[in-house]
């Protein structure tokens, strides 16, 4: 059905997803109801099920995709132009600010707890998010190589994967403790390790 939507239909569906995301952030995934979402988005029940025939779970998957997209969008424009050490530091600060503002509540994580990673499409959202994020970090490392700031023989994919894993570890601890100390350390150390690798070509 999605491919057959008119421009107006796509706009309506997007409005429902964005409104649902706002409701879920405010009330929590477990507490929010379809009535809450319909009230916020000024949508009738028939409209809601027209765009999401499988009901709440299908809508939650769409909101999870919306939240996943925002994880990367919130890091722009810095994530897309990691071509200098200054740019990496700006990106680091934006990531820390984003997760400190979010605190110990993760909308995306809460959604996956509710719908389960086995729900069709749910695991694919996480896999695609991590793939895009790692590829963006790898592109930044390759930019530094092209600028002569990192050695050509550096294992770019391994470095990007390690940095992403460090970030996720820091975020997990933040969600558990409410403290960003480990996330800050992970980002500072990850960038510092990259810069040390570049000392050989300085």
Automatic annotation (TrEMBL):
The keyword DNA-binding applies. It comes from the Bacteria. Residues 33-52 bind DNA. Residues 10-70 form the HTH tetR-type domain. Keywords: DNA-binding, Transcription, Transcription regulation. The keyword Mitochondrion does not apply. InterPro entries: Homeodomain-like_sf (IPR009057), HTH_TetR (IPR001647), Tet_transcr_reg_TetR-rel_C_sf (IPR036271), TetR_C (IPR011075). SUPFAM superfamilies: Homeodomain-like (SSF46689), Tetracyclin repressor-like, C-terminal domain (SSF48498). Signal peptide: none annotated. PANTHER family: HTH-TYPE TRANSCRIPTIONAL REGULATOR LMRA (PTHR47506:SF3), TRANSCRIPTIONAL REGULATORY PROTEIN (PTHR47506). This is TetR/AcrR family transcriptional regulator. It comes from Streptomyces sanglieri. The lineage of its organism: Bacteria, Bacillati, Actinomycetota, Actinomycetes, Kitasatosporales.
